[in-house]
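Read as amino acids, tokens; as here:

___
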Amino acid sequence: MSYNPIDISSARRRVALAATASLMALVAATPAFAQGSAAAEASDADIVVTGIRGSLQRNLDIKRESSGVVDVISAEDIGKFPDSNVAASLQRLPGVSIQRNGSRGEPQGISVRGFGGDFNETLVDGRRISTASGGRSVDFTTVGADFVGQLAVYKTPELSLSSSSIGATLNISYPKPFDKPGTRVAMSASGSVQDESGKVVPTVGGLFSTTFADDTMGILVDAIYTRRDTQTNRVFVSGWQGNRIAPCQISGSAATICRPSQPGTPNRNPDEIKNTTAWYPQQYGADQRYTKDERIDGRIAFQWQPSDDILLTIDDNYSRQKVTTDIDGFGVWFNQDDLRGVKLDGNGTIVDFTQASTPTDFTAGTDKNILETNQVGLNLKWDATENLTFDADASYSKSRLNPDGQVSSEGADIGYGGLLGTSLGVRVTGDSSKVIPELTTYGPAGNQGRFTDQSIIGSHVTVRTAQKNSDEIKQFRLGATWKQDDLTIKVGGRYMEDEFSLQNRNTFANNYWQAYAGYGAPSGRTSGVPIPASLIQGTISTKGWIPGFSGSLPPVLLNYDARAYSQYLESLWVGPNTPGYNTGCCTGFNGTIDLALDPGSVQNILEKSWSAWISASFNTEIAGMPFKVNAGGREESTKIISAGIGRLPTSIVGSAADPTLLTIAFTPEQPVSTSSTYSYFLPAIDMKLEITDKFHVRFDASRTLTRPGLNTLTPVLNVGSGQRVGALTATGGNPALKPYLAENFDFGAEWYYQRNSYASVNFFIKNVSNFIVAGTERATINGVIDPSTGQPAQFTVSRRVNGPDATVRGVELAWQHVFGDSGFGFNANATFVETNKPYDRSDLSTSGFAVTGLANSANLVAFYDKNGFEFRTALNWRDKYLSQFGQAQNNSLYGAEPTFVNSALQIDLSTNIRLTDQFSVFGEALNITNETQSTHGRFSNQLLDVYAYGRRFTAGVRYRF
């Protein structure tokens, strides 16, 4: 029978929690292995063993006794979770790897056996948690780990919990008052510093739990404040666009006229016809980001046991995260037909070129987002008879992004162009994992010494956005369990209602972003105004910008405040004849750079799902060997109601202030709505044969599904109102998308050769159908004309459709060993995966397909745990992998270009010293080798992003009794 940590008895739960706690502390790195001899020893006596080894043993016990494939990781003790982030701990498990947030370096999501966030369902105490991101995945930077009790990763389905995940189901269990009757207090305080930010920031929290009324009632309260400051350096290419260039653009051409044109264009020389496949960088730049991440987590749980047969639990989990990022940098924009002196490598990547009259923008911005989530739940367990138990659960969860509708992003561009435009070029000299592209020329009219000369810098664009999302989940579950001798039968059902709403207000919708575009008089423009020196706060040196990378940048960047810049522009207004105002750009403009609702962004998606399940578990023998079987099925039915606001473009107008800018007019807005339904039966069977007491083999087969992300189900085609020359884009949803379906097979063997030690191998195959593909095509929309070409406008239109099937197969290897009573031990695992649909770089069709997220990975945790002293080091490695189809700029002739994440190795250290039974001190050092995170496009030298997020050091104290 698959193990569910919610259902274990209180005595065993106390043992499991206290011990699994170690595993988590074991480095946020050890695969939750454990479940063997410790459970056998603890079953006869209520013995609680703390520390890394105790935790590992109890986790190993859960793994060993489960008929399905489950890994568990726990806090070593209440309030002693070794990581500030759940995902950081999960990456130590076999088959689990993480995705990091580039700006902060924080683990943000997980992949299980190569399947990313949307393929993994995250539950809190068995309940789906809402997430205002609109996807299925949970942003783990919003989930505080400090008072988590246990994490269970179900790689094969537990039918009574969920079957809607092709990767895995993750269940986060929080402690309850009855886990350990009596009074408990845990407190912790720490300070952390990231070496680049140089600022020590606090984390402080406390937990109180007590039982009363003869231990028939209990209450638990905890709260924690966490802050992380991070300064990150970045170099970026917003997108490598695939297209065709003309021979006259290539280095060495003797052509005196070069008008790159499509085949069949009249009055063109052969060397002007675009016939050579090439990829060029759409935008290149660098920036520095200072991020302040503040999170408040709070929780209250009440339990009442009026009799031995009834247990009522009521809880409320709350979190609020505020992330503020200040950005300063520069960026330059390129158009394919304007490139000259082009040099190509053997793959068609443009590795050197120049573009005449290129403007230079100095960018600044402040992103400020608040994510608030609250989940209230009620659970009632009733032992109706000695054999029959009922479990009823109801919960309500709501997550809101920017609940007050505040401006979430302030962005600004200042710089020079026109007469001061540069014959600017970019050169690529190496691989994206070790070399950044570099500018061959820069500065006004090519004068590098005047790159940041404030006397010639003028205003350009002002981008303000206010993103507001909400996700509301209502769910009810009723289950019954019949147990008699070696037979267990479970039946139940669940109803869930998930409503996701999204809208965006911005300065593109009213075109106010161009109100003072043009750079002003120094650039030879009548629109735009000079930037006063008082707005510039200084410069930022780019020396040593990305550790371990070669390639140069301009020596300094400008530092200024985007909001102060837009307020300065607002102060200039004296009417339509205001000097520098981009006359005629903005209907209704009255001097204030207000935001307007973007109709194409409005989404309201309602998903209703009904589930029913039945499973039977029994124990028997085969040739005298214990044999466990758990089999059943789950029916899933879903209805989607999708609504939005539709409109079509009627015209495109160029900008007199900046020849790269375009403005689009639209038809009147129309409400659009649609609905769809689907149902699937999801069978599952788990079998385990204990060949000896120490050697077990498993076989598991199941069908699982993953529903499309809610934000992909909009019924409208969205064409942005503010666009750029040569980069017209449109995005569309598909409310009729069907879920991914997978037929899963697992075969594993485990050898529990001594206490707290084991080795295992697990083979898996997943045959996945209904893959959702982000198809991209070039198309005209409503016959509008592109003023830059005089031809029908060609939009790059991205839509999602159900596409091909694919098979993913792999093997997980794990080895955990403790060296007797020495205190030393290690935990190691490796996962190797492959697919029959790998990425084919030579496929230039717009519907290219490959399985994303697949990467080999390995983890090693070495530890010492004895006499109150714990020390561990963790090495986590993930090979290069295809992250997604799509880049920041998606204008390729060959569909959505890929994004690959380069291989990464991170080494972390942590230690804990117990000074008394109640008091301990701890320390942590993350990313001690100062690794970076980088991505690239179709080929390895097409760098997209590289982030240098530095090291982080933490020291603190814990107190408990």
Residues 10-25 form the longest helix (16 residues). Residues 1-49 have pLDDT under 50 and may be disordered. Residues 628 and 667 are 64 Å apart (CA to CA).
